[in-house]
Every structure is written in structure tokens, then in C-alpha cells.
Amino acid sequence: MDKERYQRQTILPGFGEEAQLRLSKAKVLVIGAGGLGCPALQYLVAAGVGYIGIADDDKVELSNLQRQILFGVADIRELKVNAASKRLKQMNPDVRLLLYPFSINKKNIISTLNDYDIIFDGTDNFETRYLVNDACALLKKPLIFAAVSGYEGQLAAFNIPDDAGLTTNYRDLFPIQPKAKEIPNCAENGILGVIPGIIGTMAAGEIIKVITGIGNTLANKLLHYNLLNQQQYEINISPSDAYKPIKSEIDLMERDYNLEKIKVNGFIEIDVDAMLELNDKESSIIVDVRERHEFPKLNSNIYKQIPMSEFSDFVESDIEQTTIILLCQHGIRSVAAAELLHKKYGEAKNIYSLKGGIAKWRNHFLTT
Asked: Which band of pLDDT confidence, cut at 50, 70 and 90, is reported for residue 243?
């Protein structure tokens, strides 16, 4: 252990070299290397957590740089796990980093979580959030949860016994997973860059407390923070009668998290591979519903551009194709367009929306 590197924290009353040794032996998995994951990773690495896993399948985009402080312009189009790893190794080469450049799903979550002592959920979608929660509850893994939107953030510690031995998880707070598009995300609502920085740093603090045993954790509590008035408050979490625990890995596999194809109001949300496969079939069309000034520009031989401002005319026309695939920048307007088409055609046509839009699959569109 490099005593000089950690001297400022080992001299703290109640911390000392014993707490530092616990940090050096701890294994923490950070799911999501975005606005929340970046500050959490930065401070966990700086504090000397021995083993840190980073799971994220996204690549760095220009719009990330406003809040994802581990990345720079030179990292654009690089996998986030790789870009983060390079920066973190410069900060503290003694920390061992394990990279998982794939999305967490039902098939890989148990094997991925098994090797870690504590899990941090810094994801930005409910599908993964509920899956991670259920897997951690099944495996009895401490889960530090964080979420942000606009000027506000939330933080909680799950599966950690309080003084009475009681444990709770995310489903005790919100038993039912929201339907797709029911609650807007940051791409729709917006986010002030410092908010994930504040909450992500607080999450790192919670993780350090759980590892070292210092202080009181947020076990069975949800902390809510508002930047505009600098106020925060805590909500006590009690076990919910509506919560149905996951009892086995088979139970987990059978539960529907809408991680792949999401059927909503008669149309299906798909990924880019499914989009390309569908486009190879006869009588199909891919429609870009972004406005004409938006970038990146797509190949007009493959994608037909019909902006939402002109989409009503398209809906009223007689569409020949039986398979219609819609896309936009973030997968929000394409959902609205899919709903309009379904109202007209019902099940007579196969209607799809690209989940996450061009922003999520940007690398594919830049190389098309």
C-alpha cells in the first residue's frame, strides 16, 4: 500500500490504515460509465479501491462531455469503458480495472455480478435498473443506487441491513416497473452537468462507507437533492407488500424487463441489428423523422427522410410497404410517429421504432 498516496485519508480519526486496507481488497462493479459513473469511478480509484469493474456498451459522444468528466474531445467514438480506463489508470495505476464493453442483460448479469462485493447502478433506463436491482436482491449484494433528472438527484443504499437487521430494495420503493416512455429520460428532460457530478460523488462516498464501516449508510433510506435551493431530505423505505422477490436465476430469466424488443401500443422497439435485418426483407422502408437540418445526414438510398413536421401527409398517403421502421435522434419522435401509423393501420402493417435512436447507435450511422 502506497502510504504517501493515501496519507490524507489514513490520518482521519476513525479511518486509519485498517480502512485503507479494506478499500484495497474491495471489489466494486460500476454499471454505467456516464454522468453518474464517471465521478464515482474517479473518486473510487483515487481512494484506492482495489478492484473496479466498469460495464457499459456505449461510445463517447460530443453531448456526453457536458457532464461525463472522464472524457474529452479526443475520446469521441471510443468505447466509454476504454476511454475511462485510460484516464483512471493515469490517476492510480495500482487499482485493477476490469472492463465489460457490453450491455447488461438477463443472460450475463449473474455471472458479471458474482465476482463483486458491491454494485453501483449508474444506469439511465428503467429496464436495466430493475434487472440490476432484482439480481442484487437475489445474490444479496449491496447495491448503491443513483438517479438524476433536471436539477435533482436521488441516492439510496439497498440490500444493506439497518440496526434492526431489515433490508429493502428498489422495488420496495417502486414495485412496478414503468412502461416504456412513461417517464422521460435526461435526453428528453435535460440535465445540468453538475447534478450527476454531485450525486455520483456522493455515491462514491456511500460505497466507501459500506466498505470501511465508517459512518452511517443510507440503508433503507432514499436521499433526494435539489440544486436550485440546495435542499435535501430523506425518505424512509419500508418493505412493500406489492414486492414479489426473485427467488432463483430461473425466476429472473422468466421476468420481462423489456430489454430487447419492447411492444408498446401495437408497435415494437428494436435495436440496430434488428432494423438492418428487417430492412433486408421485401416491402420494407426505413423512415428518418428528424427535421432536415439535423445531423448526421443519412444515406438517402437507404433512409427516406420524412420530418415530423411533414409526417401527417405521409400518414394520410397510401403506404405500399408492409414493414415500416422509424428512427430519429433519440428514439422519442420515432415512437410518436409509430403511434400515429398504428392508429391508421393497426396490425395490418409491421411498425417498428429504433430504440435509443441515432444517438445510441451513432457509430453505425457514421460508418454507413
From this structure: confident
What is the per-residue pLDDT for 287?
95
Structural domain of 289:
262-366
Long-range CB contacts (within 8 A, 24+) of 152-155: 152/195, 152/224, 152/225, 152/226, 152/227, 153/195, 153/196, 153/198, 153/199, 153/224, 153/225, 154/199, 154/222, 154/223, 154/224, 154/225, 155/199, 155/202, 155/203, 155/206, 155/218, 155/222, 155/223, 155/225
- Can you tell me the distance from the alpha carbon of 349 to that of 325, in angstroms, rounded to the nearest whole number? 11
Higher pLDDT, 237 or 186: 237
For residues 121 and 207, state if they share a domain: yes
Shortest CA distance to 172 belongs to which of 141, 224, 134, 118?
Answer: 134
Claim to verify: residue 223 and residue 285 sit in the same structural domain: no
Q: Is 204 exposed, middle or buried (0-12, 13-18, 19+ CB in 10 A)?
A: buried
pLDDT of residue 368: 47
Predicted local distance difference test score (pLDDT) of residue 21 = 97
Residues 242 and 293 in one domain: no
Enclosing H/E stretch for 109: helix 109-113
Query: Does 124 reside within a domain?
Result: yes
Residue ending a domain, choose from 193, 221, 254 = 254
Q: Are residues 126 and 61 in the same domain?
A: yes
More confident residue, 36 or 278: 36
* pTM for the model: 0.73
Max CA separation in the chain (angstroms): 75
Q: Is the peptide bond before 296 cis (omega within 30 degrees of 0)?
A: yes
The dihedral over CA atoms of 81, 84, 86, 92, expressed in degrees to the nearest 10, equals -120
In the chain the first and final C-alpha atoms are separated, in Å, by 49
**8 A C-beta contact, residue 155 and residue 146:** yes
